[in-house]
Structure prediction request, 219 residues.
Amino acid sequence: MTNPIHCPLCDDTETQLFFTSQDAVSEREFNRCRTCDLVFVPAVFHIDEQSQKERYLQHQNDPYDKDYRFFLSRLFDQLRPLLNPGSMGLDYGAGPGPALAAMMSEEGFDIQLYDLFFHSDKCVLKTLYDFVTCTETAEHFSSPREEFRKLFQLLRPGGWLGVMTGMLESWDDFANWYYHRDPTHVCFYSKKTMVWIGKEYSMTVLLPVQNVALFRKSN
Prediction:
């Protein structure tokens, strides 16, 4: 008898095989959780950290590239009006070119950086923040339950977590979605998943535009 696969977000065993990719990039299985609606790649298909870092270094994330800034403005434009002037924040998963942090700094916000590979000083994880940003990072979480718990613990009461990650309107479109072809992408969220996360951690959740979720910690 095959052991059930636990969902890495809600830890439920109500998961089932959802999709199998067999393309030139990778051959992986994707499971879907019936409880929180997360689609995830089982750990046996995850690539090692060195391979992940090499993949990230291929990204052209110039902090001053206007197209990249426009891409990040999807979250930036939604989060900025919710913050008080001079608020202190953390860019979690900043990557080698922390463009969003530069955009926030230019608006007068005090922002720190953390990234497992490129800004790995864990001292910044010992501070509480008015806001935390997590752009194009949540899809890389091998342990999303622990990561989201950590992110919410970094917030002061009333603080905001801004998450930007690819979200489909319908899982029926998953097979043709480019997003799952990146071998470093191992978790895929729906709006239903984001609502589940909000309820699980007693956070207010807003879904203002496609691919953006805003979570507010209660006072």
About this structure: Residues 15-217 form a domain with the Rossmann fold fold (CATH 3.40.50). Residues 66-79 form the longest helix (14 residues). Helices lie at 49-57, 66-79, 99-106, 144-153, 191-200.
